[in-house]
Amino acid sequence: MGFLLFLALLVFAWQGLYWLGVELLQWWKPYALPSPLGVAKSFLDLCQDGRLFEAAGNSLLRGIAGYALALAIGMALGIIIHQSKYLQKNLKPMVLGVQTLPSVCWVPFSILWFGLTDQAILFVVVMGSAFSVAISVDNAIQNVQPIYTKAALTLGADKRQLYFYVILPACLPELVAGMKQGWSFAWRALMAGEVMTTSVGLGQTLIMGRDLADINQVMLVMVVIVLAGVIIDKCFFLAIERRILRKRGLL
Amino acid sequence: MALVLEGLCKRFGNSEKDTLHKIDLKVETGEFVCIVGTSGCGKSTLLNLVAGLEQPTQGRVLLDGEEVSKPGADRTVMFQEHGLFPWLSVIDNVKFGMRLAGLPKEEQEKKARHYLEMVRLWDYRDYPIHQISGGMRQRTALARSLTMESKVLLMDEPFSALDKQTSNRLREELQRIWMETKQTILFITHSVEEAVYLADRIVVFAPDSGKVAEIVTVGLPRPRHVYAPEFVDLRHRILEEVRGEAI
Ligand SMILES: Nc1ncnc2c1ncn2[C@@H]1O[C@H](COP(=O)(O)OP(=O)(O)O)[C@@H](O)[C@H]1O
Ligand SMILES: [Mg+2]
Questions:
Q1: Residue A21 shares a structural domain with residue A50
Q2: Contact B97/A170, CB-based, under 8 Å?
Q3: Which of A155, A161, A164, A168 to mutate to test the interface with B (most CBs of B within 10 A)?
Q4: What average pLDDT does this structure show over A163-184?
Q5: Cα separation of A205 and A119, whole Å?
């Protein structure tokens, strides 16, 4: 409740600033400062012709597809790295290095490979997220307490049982945290990809706002991007994380 | 003869001398053998070799005449830190080994109940691990080990992390359970009192040499009483040996 009040105050102050600075004293041009009312109007406009939903839906689907791909690739890579001391020593630092590359840097490469297509965006998402997933999978498995493995082995576990009945559940909390981080990387990479290409999506709607010099539309899309990211983070990942931790008495 | 150790040596990579040096030991089926020694004398290392969690530098471990090379359910271990799985309830932890072995569900249920009643935890079967006390956790771990009905049950200071009262209580129960099941047990402890209380035979480790100082047969009838004069005498004699004062 306190937060909603804060938000209302912020919006109110912002609208006040707009009236004062743009309409009353004419310090700024109207295209230089968005206003809450302007954003709301932009929202209604974009809702009316369904463009906002189409864009958000497209982005979300693309994001989920890319993220799923990144999860599959990242998990496989993480498990492969974990299997071998050699790879852990040599490949892992490289993966860590590549992970520091901001995902927007993959865009030129991706466009050269795939052109201005959906695949190009997916590629950027996968590159932006898979390596972080791989690293966290390897870390998560490494942090499993040896006592669990020892106990399971002396209870007769074979290698497959060890992975599925012990290591996987033991590292689940850390794994979900890693997946959550992977999602936030994927979402950012998605926007980087969409801004640079032409497929219908939130990123493209953002760029269209710039082309129309419509700062309210730009602001609106930014708000939508933040909201979508936050909602998935809180409603999905945080909920799963809390459930797992509560079940184990860690919360 | 359930378990035979032959000339067992263990030297860790970074060490100049053997942590364990030429250990020979025979454990009969149904026997309760305690290994006692000061901390760091190599007790856990010995147990890990028997469990197959570590490989010996020399010598071998035979179980019913067959050489041991890797961990298995015929040599279940109960550890000092319970090693229960926090994502499973008490009863699911107890069933874990049976599930791995692919036992039919009804049999898992039946055995789990049998052993949970034996350790007096049946009423707590659905509790998550984090909601039961340290003593109850060790009981759960004990029940889980017992379900395996291993050829030999290995126990590495299972009561050492508990408070004195709980640990005394649990060793009484272990004695009762052992008399009921006649499970072959190799039990490690640093407490001479615990060893004299529980064991048929006590393997006394000499300090800092990786060797066995003496193997003592405890002739006292069960249940034993820690204040009985024979008990106190034996305890003192072994204590001196463990400290290295009598050699
Ligand atoms: N994995 C290992 N690598 C190197 N040294 C070890 C390892 N495990 C145990 N040791 C050494 O072996 C000795 C005996 O350890 P341990 O068997 O744990 O003793 P205890 O259980 O009797 O207290 C100690 O000096 C310890 O440092
Ligand atoms: Mg030890």
A1: no
A2: no
A3: A155
A4: 94
A5: 19
